[in-house]
Amino acid sequence: MAGKNAEFARSFQEQVNFFVKKSVPEARVLLMKKIGMEFYRRLTLKSPVDTGRFRANWGIDIGSPYEEQDATLTAKDWAQREMFAQLKIDSFGVSDTQIWICNNLPYSNRLEYGWSKQAPQGMVRTSLLEMKEWANARRR
Asked: Do the beta carbons of residue 128 and residue 8 sit within 8 Å?
């Protein structure tokens, strides 16, 4: 399964790279911001919710993996976290090359691989497929 995730991620990255190479710097920045926030929204909305801790622990960083986790977050924190994600995405600039979206809770991998009845197909894999289709539709 991990190999398929890497394959999906590479394929999605290839789609993003195609758009980036065809874009002028300012347009590339806008495109990356749009892709980053859309992917973040898809991940969070697909995340199973019990207490909301998992959904609220998705985080974004620019240039390097997001490394934080907060076991005290709950569903009531999600809207604020989404606002912080948008602010982080908005900070993406011409010299930046990567947007990292991560969830570092210890059980995130189990949730991705079917531990939850709410999201048996995971969040990352299904969102990657959707984003690949989204990119392909705009590439034509």
From this structure: yes
